Amino acid sequence: MPHGGAVCARRPALRIALGEGDLTGTEQVLLRNVTKRVRLWNEVEPFFPDQMYGLPKTSESRGTEAVINALILATYDAGKGALSDETQQAFNNLWALQFKTGELKGGWAWFSFGLEPWESQGGPYFGAALAAIAVGTAPSGYAASPDVQDRLKALDDFLQRRVEKESLFNRVMALWGSTKLPALLTPNQRQAIIDDVLRLQKDDGGWSMSSLGPWKRVDGTPLDLNSDGYATGLIVLVLQEFGGASTQTATQKALTWLVRHQDPTGGMWSASSLNKQRDPTSDVGKFMSDAATAFAVLALTQTH
Questions:
Q1: Based on CB atoms within 10 Å of each CB, which residue in 76, 96, 188, 230 is the most buried?
Q2: CA separation (Å) from 16 to 3, 22, 143, 278?
Q3: Over the stretch 76-101, which tens digit does the pLDDT of each residue have?
Q4: Are residues 155 and 234 in the same domain?
Q5: How many separate domains does the chain show?
Protein backbone atom coordinates (compact mmCIF):
# COMPACT_ATOMS: atom_id res chain seq x y z
CA MET A 1 0.00 0.00 0.00
CA PRO A 2 2.60 2.73 0.89
CA HIS A 3 3.88 3.04 -2.67
CA GLY A 4 0.35 2.93 -4.08
CA GLY A 5 -0.07 6.68 -4.50
CA ALA A 6 2.72 6.94 -7.03
CA VAL A 7 1.78 3.71 -8.78
CA CYS A 8 -1.84 4.86 -9.07
CA ALA A 9 -0.67 8.18 -10.51
CA ARG A 10 1.10 6.36 -13.33
CA ARG A 11 -2.07 5.59 -15.27
CA PRO A 12 -3.44 9.20 -15.21
CA ALA A 13 -0.03 10.43 -16.39
CA LEU A 14 -0.05 7.92 -19.24
CA ARG A 15 -3.63 8.78 -20.14
CA ILE A 16 -2.76 12.44 -20.55
CA ALA A 17 0.38 11.66 -22.54
CA LEU A 18 -1.55 9.30 -24.82
CA GLY A 19 -4.47 11.66 -25.26
CA GLU A 20 -6.96 9.24 -23.70
CA GLY A 21 -10.13 10.67 -22.23
CA ASP A 22 -11.73 8.00 -20.06
CA LEU A 23 -10.51 6.25 -16.95
CA THR A 24 -9.61 2.61 -17.40
CA GLY A 25 -11.73 -0.03 -15.73
CA THR A 26 -9.02 -0.67 -13.15
CA GLU A 27 -8.88 3.03 -12.25
CA GLN A 28 -12.64 3.19 -11.88
CA VAL A 29 -12.63 0.22 -9.51
CA LEU A 30 -9.78 1.74 -7.50
CA LEU A 31 -11.53 5.09 -7.13
CA ARG A 32 -14.81 3.45 -6.16
CA ASN A 33 -13.08 1.43 -3.46
CA VAL A 34 -11.14 4.41 -2.10
CA THR A 35 -14.13 6.76 -2.06
CA LYS A 36 -16.29 4.11 -0.38
CA ARG A 37 -13.79 3.63 2.42
CA VAL A 38 -13.41 7.41 2.80
CA ARG A 39 -17.18 7.90 3.11
CA LEU A 40 -17.52 4.99 5.56
CA TRP A 41 -14.29 5.78 7.42
CA ASN A 42 -15.80 5.38 10.88
CA GLU A 43 -17.46 2.09 9.94
CA VAL A 44 -14.94 0.14 7.87
CA GLU A 45 -12.33 -2.06 9.51
CA PRO A 46 -8.61 -1.30 9.11
CA PHE A 47 -6.75 -3.53 6.67
CA PHE A 48 -4.48 -4.80 9.47
CA PRO A 49 -6.42 -4.84 12.78
CA ASP A 50 -4.72 -5.34 16.15
CA GLN A 51 -6.85 -8.43 16.79
CA MET A 52 -5.15 -10.28 13.93
CA TYR A 53 -1.72 -8.65 13.66
CA GLY A 54 -1.03 -7.29 17.16
CA LEU A 55 -0.54 -3.81 18.53
CA PRO A 56 -0.19 -1.16 17.10
CA LYS A 57 -1.25 -2.37 13.63
CA THR A 58 -4.70 -0.75 13.72
CA SER A 59 -3.13 2.66 14.31
CA GLU A 60 -0.46 2.06 11.65
CA SER A 61 -3.02 0.81 9.16
CA ARG A 62 -5.35 3.77 9.65
CA GLY A 63 -2.58 6.36 9.45
CA THR A 64 -1.12 4.83 6.31
CA GLU A 65 -4.47 4.47 4.59
CA ALA A 66 -5.54 8.01 5.47
CA VAL A 67 -2.45 9.45 3.77
CA ILE A 68 -2.73 7.21 0.69
CA ASN A 69 -6.46 7.91 0.27
CA ALA A 70 -5.88 11.66 0.37
CA LEU A 71 -2.99 11.40 -2.10
CA ILE A 72 -4.92 9.29 -4.60
CA LEU A 73 -8.05 11.45 -4.53
CA ALA A 74 -6.11 14.74 -4.58
CA THR A 75 -4.17 13.51 -7.62
CA TYR A 76 -7.36 12.76 -9.53
CA ASP A 77 -9.01 16.01 -8.42
CA ALA A 78 -5.99 17.98 -9.63
CA GLY A 79 -6.73 16.75 -13.14
CA LYS A 80 -10.28 18.07 -12.85
CA GLY A 81 -9.29 21.36 -11.21
CA ALA A 82 -11.78 21.11 -8.33
CA LEU A 83 -11.75 19.57 -4.88
CA SER A 84 -14.47 16.94 -4.46
CA ASP A 85 -16.45 16.31 -1.29
CA GLU A 86 -14.82 12.89 -1.01
CA THR A 87 -11.32 14.38 -1.15
CA GLN A 88 -12.25 16.97 1.46
CA GLN A 89 -13.44 14.13 3.67
CA ALA A 90 -10.22 12.21 3.01
CA PHE A 91 -8.23 15.19 4.26
CA ASN A 92 -10.52 15.51 7.29
CA ASN A 93 -9.76 11.85 8.07
CA LEU A 94 -6.06 12.55 7.56
CA TRP A 95 -5.83 15.53 9.90
CA ALA A 96 -7.80 13.78 12.61
CA LEU A 97 -5.00 11.19 12.87
CA GLN A 98 -2.06 13.61 12.85
CA PHE A 99 -0.06 13.32 16.07
CA LYS A 100 -0.43 16.36 18.32
CA THR A 101 2.31 15.46 20.81
CA GLY A 102 5.32 13.23 21.20
CA GLU A 103 8.21 12.26 18.95
CA LEU A 104 5.96 11.99 15.89
CA LYS A 105 4.18 15.31 16.48
CA GLY A 106 3.09 16.57 13.07
CA GLY A 107 3.33 13.13 11.45
CA TRP A 108 1.27 9.95 11.31
CA ALA A 109 1.46 6.36 12.46
CA TRP A 110 2.83 4.25 9.64
CA PHE A 111 3.23 0.59 8.76
CA SER A 112 6.25 -1.07 10.35
CA PHE A 113 6.90 -4.54 9.00
CA GLY A 114 10.68 -4.25 8.83
CA LEU A 115 10.55 -3.83 5.05
CA GLU A 116 12.56 -1.16 3.27
CA PRO A 117 12.07 1.46 2.04
CA TRP A 118 8.41 2.10 2.95
CA GLU A 119 7.49 -0.07 5.94
CA SER A 120 10.42 0.33 8.31
CA GLN A 121 11.80 2.70 10.91
CA GLY A 122 11.79 5.58 8.44
CA GLY A 123 8.19 4.94 7.42
CA PRO A 124 6.58 7.82 9.36
CA TYR A 125 8.84 10.34 7.61
CA PHE A 126 8.05 8.83 4.22
CA GLY A 127 4.34 9.01 5.05
CA ALA A 128 4.57 12.63 6.17
CA ALA A 129 6.26 13.54 2.89
CA LEU A 130 3.43 11.84 0.99
CA ALA A 131 0.90 13.78 3.05
CA ALA A 132 2.65 17.02 2.09
CA ILE A 133 2.55 16.03 -1.58
CA ALA A 134 -1.17 15.30 -1.24
CA VAL A 135 -1.90 18.70 0.30
CA GLY A 136 0.23 20.51 -2.26
CA THR A 137 -1.40 18.62 -5.14
CA ALA A 138 -4.99 19.26 -4.06
CA PRO A 139 -6.72 21.87 -6.24
CA SER A 140 -8.93 24.83 -5.29
CA GLY A 141 -6.22 26.41 -3.13
CA TYR A 142 -6.61 23.77 -0.45
CA ALA A 143 -3.10 24.29 0.95
CA ALA A 144 -3.94 27.96 1.62
CA SER A 145 -7.12 27.16 3.54
CA PRO A 146 -7.05 28.91 6.94
CA ASP A 147 -8.32 25.82 8.77
CA VAL A 148 -5.31 23.70 7.79
CA GLN A 149 -2.51 26.17 8.53
CA ASP A 150 -1.82 24.96 12.07
CA ARG A 151 -1.74 21.37 10.84
CA LEU A 152 0.60 22.29 7.98
CA LYS A 153 2.89 24.14 10.39
CA ALA A 154 3.12 20.99 12.53
CA LEU A 155 3.89 18.96 9.39
CA ASP A 156 6.59 21.45 8.34
CA ASP A 157 8.16 21.28 11.80
CA PHE A 158 8.15 17.47 11.75
CA LEU A 159 9.87 17.24 8.37
CA GLN A 160 12.39 20.00 9.05
CA ARG A 161 13.57 18.84 12.45
CA ARG A 162 14.23 15.27 11.28
CA VAL A 163 15.48 15.74 7.73
CA GLU A 164 19.22 15.56 8.47
CA LYS A 165 18.73 12.22 10.26
CA GLU A 166 16.77 10.52 7.48
CA SER A 167 17.90 8.33 4.61
CA LEU A 168 18.56 10.12 1.35
CA PHE A 169 15.53 8.29 -0.06
CA ASN A 170 13.29 9.92 2.54
CA ARG A 171 15.03 13.27 2.08
CA VAL A 172 14.29 13.12 -1.64
CA MET A 173 10.64 12.51 -0.77
CA ALA A 174 10.70 15.59 1.47
CA LEU A 175 12.30 17.58 -1.36
CA TRP A 176 9.44 16.48 -3.60
CA GLY A 177 6.99 17.69 -0.98
CA SER A 178 8.77 21.05 -0.83
CA THR A 179 8.19 21.55 -4.56
CA LYS A 180 4.47 21.58 -3.70
CA LEU A 181 4.76 23.40 -0.34
CA PRO A 182 7.88 25.62 -0.34
CA ALA A 183 7.84 26.20 3.44
CA LEU A 184 8.25 22.48 4.04
CA LEU A 185 12.08 22.72 4.02
CA THR A 186 14.51 25.59 4.37
CA PRO A 187 16.54 26.66 1.30
CA ASN A 188 19.68 25.20 2.89
CA GLN A 189 17.96 21.87 3.52
CA ARG A 190 16.76 21.68 -0.08
CA GLN A 191 20.20 22.49 -1.46
CA ALA A 192 21.89 19.92 0.78
CA ILE A 193 19.59 17.20 -0.56
CA ILE A 194 20.26 18.20 -4.16
CA ASP A 195 24.02 18.25 -3.56
CA ASP A 196 23.91 14.74 -2.08
CA VAL A 197 21.76 13.46 -4.94
CA LEU A 198 24.01 14.89 -7.67
CA ARG A 199 27.09 13.46 -5.95
CA LEU A 200 25.66 9.94 -6.16
CA GLN A 201 24.66 9.99 -9.83
CA LYS A 202 26.45 7.20 -11.67
CA ASP A 203 28.51 7.63 -14.81
CA ASP A 204 25.73 6.00 -16.85
CA GLY A 205 23.31 8.75 -15.77
CA GLY A 206 21.23 6.73 -13.34
CA TRP A 207 20.96 6.21 -9.60
CA SER A 208 20.75 3.06 -7.52
CA MET A 209 18.35 2.53 -4.62
CA SER A 210 21.25 0.87 -2.79
CA SER A 211 22.94 4.27 -2.48
CA LEU A 212 19.92 6.09 -1.02
CA GLY A 213 19.94 4.56 2.43
CA PRO A 214 21.73 2.35 4.96
CA TRP A 215 20.00 -0.72 3.66
CA LYS A 216 21.07 -4.26 4.54
CA ARG A 217 19.39 -7.41 3.28
CA VAL A 218 18.20 -9.81 5.96
CA ASP A 219 19.41 -12.85 4.02
CA GLY A 220 22.96 -11.51 3.79
CA THR A 221 22.94 -11.26 -0.01
CA PRO A 222 24.59 -8.18 -1.55
CA LEU A 223 22.47 -5.24 -2.65
CA ASP A 224 22.19 -4.48 -6.35
CA LEU A 225 24.57 -1.59 -6.96
CA ASN A 226 23.50 -0.92 -10.54
CA SER A 227 21.36 2.01 -11.60
CA ASP A 228 17.66 1.14 -11.40
CA GLY A 229 14.36 2.55 -12.55
CA TYR A 230 13.02 3.37 -9.09
CA ALA A 231 15.86 5.56 -7.84
CA THR A 232 16.41 7.14 -11.26
CA GLY A 233 12.73 7.74 -11.98
CA LEU A 234 12.04 9.21 -8.54
CA ILE A 235 15.05 11.53 -8.56
CA VAL A 236 14.45 12.73 -12.12
CA LEU A 237 10.81 13.46 -11.31
CA VAL A 238 11.76 15.47 -8.22
CA LEU A 239 14.57 17.36 -9.95
CA GLN A 240 12.20 18.30 -12.75
CA GLU A 241 9.66 19.54 -10.23
CA PHE A 242 12.37 21.47 -8.42
CA GLY A 243 13.82 23.05 -11.57
CA GLY A 244 16.96 25.15 -11.62
CA ALA A 245 19.88 25.35 -14.00
CA SER A 246 22.24 23.44 -11.70
CA THR A 247 20.33 20.18 -12.17
CA GLN A 248 19.62 20.32 -15.91
CA THR A 249 22.64 18.33 -17.06
CA ALA A 250 22.07 15.60 -14.48
CA THR A 251 18.38 15.45 -15.32
CA GLN A 252 19.01 15.08 -19.04
CA LYS A 253 21.55 12.28 -18.49
CA ALA A 254 19.07 10.47 -16.26
CA LEU A 255 16.22 10.84 -18.75
CA THR A 256 18.49 9.30 -21.38
CA TRP A 257 19.17 6.42 -18.99
CA LEU A 258 15.43 5.85 -18.54
CA VAL A 259 14.78 5.82 -22.28
CA ARG A 260 17.56 3.28 -22.81
CA HIS A 261 16.63 0.94 -19.96
CA GLN A 262 12.96 0.18 -20.52
CA ASP A 263 12.46 -3.55 -20.96
CA PRO A 264 11.81 -3.97 -24.70
CA THR A 265 9.44 -6.89 -24.20
CA GLY A 266 7.50 -6.11 -21.02
CA GLY A 267 7.65 -2.32 -21.15
CA MET A 268 8.77 -2.09 -17.52
CA TRP A 269 11.77 -0.67 -15.67
CA SER A 270 13.56 -2.83 -13.13
CA ALA A 271 14.49 -2.44 -9.48
CA SER A 272 15.34 -5.10 -6.93
CA SER A 273 14.40 -5.72 -3.31
CA LEU A 274 16.32 -3.96 -0.57
CA ASN A 275 15.32 -6.69 1.89
CA LYS A 276 16.39 -10.02 0.37
CA GLN A 277 17.22 -11.77 -2.88
CA ARG A 278 13.94 -12.40 -4.70
CA ASP A 279 12.91 -14.17 -7.88
CA PRO A 280 12.35 -11.28 -10.30
CA THR A 281 9.63 -13.26 -12.11
CA SER A 282 7.52 -13.79 -8.96
CA ASP A 283 4.76 -11.43 -7.85
CA VAL A 284 6.76 -10.25 -4.82
CA GLY A 285 9.86 -10.04 -6.99
CA LYS A 286 8.09 -7.63 -9.32
CA PHE A 287 6.99 -5.33 -6.50
CA MET A 288 9.94 -2.93 -6.68
CA SER A 289 9.85 -3.01 -10.47
CA ASP A 290 6.19 -1.94 -10.35
CA ALA A 291 7.26 1.11 -8.34
CA ALA A 292 10.21 1.67 -10.68
CA THR A 293 7.93 1.65 -13.71
CA ALA A 294 5.52 4.07 -12.06
CA PHE A 295 8.24 6.62 -11.35
CA ALA A 296 9.90 6.16 -14.73
CA VAL A 297 6.58 6.90 -16.43
CA LEU A 298 5.94 9.93 -14.22
CA ALA A 299 9.43 11.27 -14.95
CA LEU A 300 9.21 10.75 -18.71
CA THR A 301 5.69 12.15 -19.06
CA GLN A 302 6.75 15.20 -17.04
CA THR A 303 8.98 16.21 -19.94
CA HIS A 304 6.06 16.54 -22.38
A1: 230
A2: 21, 10, 25, 34
A3: 999 899 999 999 999 999 999 999 99
A4: no
A5: 2
